[in-house]
Specification:
The protein has 612 residues and is mainly alpha-helical. The N and C termini lie far apart (98 Å). Keywords: Membrane, Transmembrane, Transmembrane helix.
Length: 612
């Protein structure tokens, strides 16, 4: 018996080192792969809205989300370089996820602390699930990325916070306050749901204590007050900003009213997705069994599963496969396969230890993590399951809390390496979808072959030739027409914040004058009525005749501007096929103000009439 163990132990130890190295290598592959694509592609709608908002957030009087103000210092620091902003966003997201996962694993099994390399390898592997956020390839910092980062920060705070006010615990409560503040700056709806979630977690965890909770609330309130003063110069001005944003949201009819966001969504998985989830669940469960059994068959099972998962990550990251898994709208739910395998492992292999050795604090945090993706998605007009899967790391970590008794019993997280490898394979699979089918872009990123420098910062991006031609043509035409960087512009196309950003225009009224909704015209009018008549008179106009999202020209008349009478058409170009998510190419026109004084007088006359 002893001799058999002596023969088995070296093999098990070698396997542990081998799979740990595989996991570390897979994490590096994924990070290099994602960061390498940071200069590829551009979405002319949502992503360009992020860029416009970050570049000069103080230009706008109304905003429901304040992410532009949070990310503006980063934009200034990186001189508006789009590629650098994307890389920063990727690294911040991954870094926060890694830090939170490390803290979670340590808190679940303090006994495993001596094997730091393994702990960090497992944590880094699991943290790659946060990169699933980029599976539609919108890597530029925006309100969704800030919402995810705020939840990760809050998770870190909850792991540090205790009822006893030690320096570590105090830092945790302060971090919770910072997370809550950032959640509000990203999405007030998420902040509201998070507040309820944190209170519930603290109650279940038996950490609810009025004094430290007031500290966290005070930190959030103080940061919010400072933000209000920096943004609007007064609390009253900031409150008015948010109040108007709520009122404007009712105009557009985009599904953001209170009655519409309080809902329970369903999801329907295609057969391929169900089979993929089941495969991940079974394969990972078998690998965990093998890692725990130390029998020859078990070691072989762990080795085969680990190499298989690593191979998937490697061939995708190295570009050996150019297709996608084709898992459909709810592909992000693939991560539930690993979460379920973790939960089942705890039930099957920890058995009664699951209930004996799991504290109330761990159960409380696990339950909160289970709901965190819906907290992230709360308030969106999209399906909550689809949107929430971008924060699927929390589902995964909720499952990991169930296997804590095994880690404590074995004093190590080595057995969890297959979880990390499975997570990395899933992250790579879903990221591949983003690279092959980037949102509202005509081709896979790998086929982009034309470099173009856009915007005031002259950021270099690698784009499809058609996109590069579209942007370069618009930039040249605008420059030849006398357009100067920073000139104000009104976007009547309803979908081109990206082209205005590229030519260096200052989008007035809204960072994205969005069209295509029942109340788009009313919203555009309301936003532009907050802009001075001087700016409206000086503004150029981007017009897209008969465009699918075009804002009616009545908008200009309601502002006191006679369009096209008091304007001169100076340039015309065609959009690229696929721009804005529309396959057909369309004509866009750039109009220059030719009678600014008349427009200014007309604007003032209308406003004086309205005030009487």
């Amino acid at each position: 018996m002893t001799n058999n163990r002596l023969r088995e132990m070296p093999a098990a130890l070698v396997l542990q080192h081998f799979v740990t190295c595989l996991s570390i290598l897979a994490t590096l592959f994924i990070l290099v792969w994602v960061l390498g694509y940071s200069s590829y592609g551009l979405d002319f709608t949502d992503e360009s809205f992020y860029l416009v908002w970050m570049a000069d957030p103080f230009l706008y009087e109304v905003s429901a989300t304040q992410f532009g103000f949070v990310y503006h210092p980063l934009s200034v620091l990186l001189k508006g370089d789009i590629s650098a902003l994307r890389q920063a966003n990727i690294l911040i997201t991954f870094g926060l996820a890694w830090a939170m996962t490390c803290l979670l694993l340590h808190s679940l099994a303090p006994e495993a602390r001596e094997r730091r390399v393994v702990l960090h390898a497992v944590a880094a592997g699991l943290a790659t699930s946060a990169l699933i956020f980029f599976d539609s390839w919108l890597p530029t910092p925006g309100y969704d990325s800030l919402a995810l980062q705020s939840l990760l920060i809050t998770g870190i705070g909850l792991l540090l916070a205790e009822t006893k006010l030690t320096p570590r615990s105090l830092s945790g409560w302060i971090v919770i306050g910072i997370g809550g503040w950032l959640a509000f700056m990203a999405k007030p709806s998420t902040a509201l749901a998070l507040a309820f979630g944190v209170c519930f977690c603290l109650l279940v965890s038996r950490k609810f204590s009025l004094q430290p909770l007031l500290l966290a609330a005070a930190v959030a309130i103080v940061l919010l007050l400072i933000s209000a003063l920096l943004i609007d110069g007064s609390v009253e001005g900031f409150v008015e900003r948010v109040r108007l944003a709520i009122e404007f949201a009712k105009y557009i009819g985009g599904g953001h009213t209170a009655a519409e966001i309080l809902r329970i969504d369903n999801f329907l998985l295609p057969a391929r997705t169900k089979h993929a989830i089941l495969f991940v669940l079974v394969a990972t469960l078998v690998a965990i069994w093998g890692a725990l059994s130390k029998k020859a068959l078990g070691l072989i099972a762990t080795l085969v599963a680990s190499i298989g998962y690593f191979a998937i990550t490697a061939v995708l990251a190295l570009g050996e496969i150019t297709g996608t898994a084709g898992l459909g709208q709810f592909q992000g739910l693939l991560i539930s396969g690993v979460a379920f395998s973790a939960a089942l492992s705890g039930v099957l292999f920890a058995r009664m230890k699951l209930f004996d050795n799991t504290s109330a604090a761990q159960w409380g945090l696990g339950i909160l993590f289970l709901f965190m993706p819906h907290i992230y998605a709360f308030g969106t007009n999209g399906n909550y399951w689809e949107s929430g899967s971008s924060a699927g790391i929390f589902w995964l970590l909720a499952g990991v809390t169930v296997i804590a008794p095994i880690a404590r019993d074995r004093k190590a997280w080595t057995f969890a390496i297959p979880f990390a490898l499975a997570t990395q394979a899933i992250a790579a699979t879903l990221l591949q979808t983003g690279f092959e089918e980037p949102q509202r872009q005509p081709q896979p990123l790998r086929l982009n072959d034309t470099n173009v420098a856009i915007g005031i910062s002259r950021s270099n991006l690698t784009l499809p030739n058609t996109y590069a031609t579209y942007i370069s043509g618009a930039m040249t035409a605008a420059q030849d027409s006398g357009f100067r960087l920073g000139d104000p512009a009104i976007d009547l196309s309803g979908q081109s914040p990206g082209i205005l950003y590229a030519i260096g225009a200052a989008n007035i009224g809204q960072a994205w004058t969005i069209g295509g909704y029942p109340g788009s015209l009313k919203l555009a009018q309301a936003a532009l009525e907050l802009v001075s008549c001087e700016k409206i008179a000086a503004a150029w106009v981007l017009y897209e005749p008969d465009g699918p999202r075009s804002i009616p020209v009545e908008l200009m008349h309601w502002l006191g501007a006679a369009f096209p009478g008091n304007y001169e058409q100076v340039s015309t170009w065609r959009t690229a096929e696929g721009a804005g998510g529309y396959a057909e190419s369309r004509i866009q026109q750039l109009w220059k103000p030719a009678a600014a004084q008349d427009t200014q007088r007309g604007c003032r006359a209308l406003r004086e009439k309205e005030t009487k």
